[in-house]
C-alpha cells in the first residue's frame, strides 16, 4: 500500500468523485458527451491544457476519472485510461507505444484475441513478435533485438492458468530498458499488483472479475505517468473510451471486489481439490494447488489462486463433449469472472483462431475444460460437475 493511502477495501469504497450540490451519497452518472466553458478564455485555456478539466467524454468524464483513480490506487499506479473493452485497452496501449518496425517479446500463453493481434494485425505495420514459453524465461534475453520495445505477458494465463514469475520478468525488462506490460485480468489488483514486481503498465479486461456480474464490457490500462501520457494522447484521438454509464457500473462493482474475489478463490480451490481426487480427470491445474508447477511463485506474488480452474476429462474430445452436454447448473458461456459459474471449451471458442499446433504449444488440448468458478454455493457447483462427469 502506498504511503498515506488507506487499506485496499477502504480505497475501493471511498475513492469517489466530488459531491455535486445535491450532496448525493453514491456517485451520480454524468451521461454527457461534452462539458461547457465559462467564456472564451476558459475555452482557450482548457484546450491549451493550462487547466485540468473535462472537455469532451472521449477524453475524460467524471465517472471514468473516478474509476481510473480507484484502479490506480488499487494497482499503485500513477495514471490510467478507461476503455470500452479489454481488447480496446490491449490494442490502444500497444499501438500508442509501438512504432512501425518495432519488435515485441510476448509470452506464448496469452488471450486468443491478443495473440491474433500480434500474429495477424501488427505485421501490417511491420511490428513483429517473438514468443517465449511460460516456463522458459531464460530464453527471453536471447530474443532481444535492437528494435525490441516491449515485454508482454499475462499471469495467471487464459485459459491454462500458468503462472509467470513477474519479478524475474521485471528484472529482465529493467536490465534491457524494455517496457514491461502485464495483463492482470485473471488476478485483479486485489490478488496481485504487478507494478510492485517491475511492471510499467497493467492492463485489465474489466468485463471479468472487476464487474463480476457479467453486465458490462470494459477495459483499463494503468501505470507510469510518463507512459500513460503517450497512451492517453493516442486514446483520446482514436476514440476507444469507456461509456460513463459502464464506468459507473464498474466503479460500484469495485466496492465489493475484495469480498467477491475472496469467495471466488475459496470456491475455486474447493472445486480444484475435488477434481484432483476424481478418477475421471486426466489432470487439473489451479495456481493454489500444491501440484501446480508454479505454485511457489503463485504464492509469492498472489494472495489467492483466482476464479479459474482448468482440467481435462479422461477420454479426450468425446468425453469432454459429453461433459459439456451433461452440465445443468453451470453456464456454457465464453465469459469468466461472473457470479454465475461458467464452463468453456477453449479449443472451440476463445482460442479457436489459433492453429491446433499453436494451441498445443500453450497447453490447450482439444479436451481441456475451463471453469470460471462463481459465487453459487460450492456444494451445488461440485454436485453439478460431479453429475456431469458421471
Ligand atoms: C486475459 C484477458 N485479456 C483480455 C481480454 C479481453 O477482454 P474483453 O473481452 O473485455 O475485450 C480477455 C477476455 O476474455 C482476457 O481473458
From TrEMBL:
Statement: the UniProt record of this protein carries the keyword DNA repair: no
Domain of life: Bacteria
Pfam families listed in its UniProt record: Cys_Met_Meta_PP
Reaction(s) catalysed (UniProt annotation): O-succinyl-L-homoserine + hydrogen sulfide = L-homocysteine + succinate
One example of a Gene Ontology biological process annotation: homocysteine biosynthetic process
Signal peptide span: none
EC id: 2.5.1.-
Keyword NADP recorded: no
Co-factor(s): pyridoxal 5'-phosphate
Modification N6-(pyridoxal phosphate)lysine occurs at: 208
UniProt entry keywords in alphabetical sequence: Amino-acid biosynthesis, Methionine biosynthesis, Pyridoxal phosphate, Transferase
Gene3D superfamilies registered for this protein in UniProt: Aspartate Aminotransferase, domain 1, Type I PLP-dependent aspartate aminotransferase-like (Major domain)
GO molecular function annotation: carbon-sulfur lyase activity; pyridoxal phosphate binding; transferase activity, transferring alkyl or aryl (other than methyl) groups
Pathway where this protein functions: Amino-acid biosynthesis; L-methionine biosynthesis via de novo pathway; L-homocysteine from O-succinyl-L-homoserine: step 1/1
Record function comment: Catalyzes the formation of L-homocysteine from O-succinyl-L-homoserine (OSHS) and hydrogen sulfide.
Record-linked PANTHER family: CYSTATHIONINE GAMMA-LYASE, TRANS-SULFURATION ENZYME FAMILY MEMBER
Subunit structure as annotated in this protein's UniProt entry: Homotetramer.
Family classification: Belongs to the trans-sulfuration enzymes family. MetZ subfamily.
The protein's name: O-succinylhomoserine sulfhydrylase
Source organism phylogeny: Bacteria, Pseudomonadati, Bacteroidota, Flavobacteriia, Flavobacteriales
Amino acid at each position: 500500500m502506498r504511503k498515506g493511502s488507506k487499506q485496499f477495501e477502504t480505497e475501493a469504497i471511498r475513492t469517489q468523485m466530488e459531491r455535486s450540490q445535491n450532496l448525493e451519497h453514491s456517485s451520480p452518472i454524468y451521461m454527457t458527451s461534452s462539458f461547457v466553458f465559462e467564456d472564451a478564455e476558459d475555452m482557450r485555456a482548457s484546450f491549451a491544457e493550462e487547466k485540468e478539466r473535462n472537455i469532451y467524454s472521449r477524453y475524460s468524464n467524471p465517472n471514468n476519472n473516478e474509476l481510473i483513480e480507484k484502479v490506480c490506487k488499487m494497482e499503485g499506479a500513477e495514471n490510467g485510461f478507461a476503455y470500452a473493452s479489454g481488447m480496446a485497452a490491449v490494442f490502444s496501449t500497444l499501438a500508442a507505444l509501438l512504432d512501425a518496425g518495432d519488435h515485441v517479446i510476448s509470452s506464448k500463453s496469452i488471450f486468443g484475441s491478443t495473440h491474433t493481434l500480434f500474429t495477424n494485425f501488427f505485421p501490417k505495420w511491420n511490428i513483429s513478435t517473438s514468443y517465449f514459453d511460460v516456463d522458459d524465461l531464460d530464453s527471453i534475453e536471447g530474443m532481444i533485438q535492437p528494435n525490441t520495445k516491449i515485454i508482454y505477458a499475462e499471469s495467471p494465463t487464459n485459459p491454462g492458468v500458468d503462472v509467470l514469475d513477474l519479478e524475474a520478468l521485471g528484472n529482465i525488462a529493467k536490465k534491457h530498458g524494455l517496457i514491461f506490460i502485464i495483463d492482470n485480468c485473471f488476478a485483479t489488483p486485489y490478488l496481485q499488483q504487478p507494478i510492485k514486481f517491475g511492471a510499467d503498465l497493467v492492463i485489465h479486461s474489466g468485463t471479468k472479475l472487476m464487474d463480476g456480474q457479467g453486465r458490462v464490457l470494459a477495459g483499463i490500462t494503468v501505470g507510469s505517468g510518463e507512459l500513460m501520457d503517450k497512451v492517453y494522447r493516442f486514446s483520446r484521438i482514436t476514440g476507444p473510451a469507456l461509456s460513463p454509464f459502464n464506468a459507473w457500473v464498474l466503479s460500484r462493482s469495485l466496492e465489493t471486489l475484495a469480498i467477491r474475489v475472496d469467495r471466488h478463490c475459496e470456491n475455486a480451490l474447493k472445486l480444484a481439490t475435488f477434481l484432483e481426487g476424481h478418477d475421471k480427470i486426466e489432470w487439473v491445474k489451479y495456481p493454489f494447488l500444491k501440484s501446480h508447477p508454479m505454485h511457489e511463485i503463485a504464492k509469492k506474488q498472489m494472495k489467492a489462486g483466482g476464479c479459474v480452474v482448468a482440467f481435462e476429462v479422461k477420454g479426450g474430445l468425446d468425453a469432454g463433449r459429453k461433459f459439456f452436454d451433461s452440465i445443468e447448473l453451470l453456464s456454457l458461456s465464453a465469459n469468466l469472472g461472473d457470479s454465475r459459474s461458467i464452463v468453456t471449451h477453449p479449443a472451440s471458442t476463445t482460442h479457436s483462431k489459433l492453429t491446433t499446433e499453436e494451441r498445443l504449444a500453450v497447453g490447450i488440448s482439444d479436451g481441456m475444460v475451463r471453469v470460471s468458478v462463481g459465487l453459487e454455493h460450492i456444494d451445488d457447483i461440485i454436485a453439478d460437475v460431479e453429475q456431469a462427469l458421471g
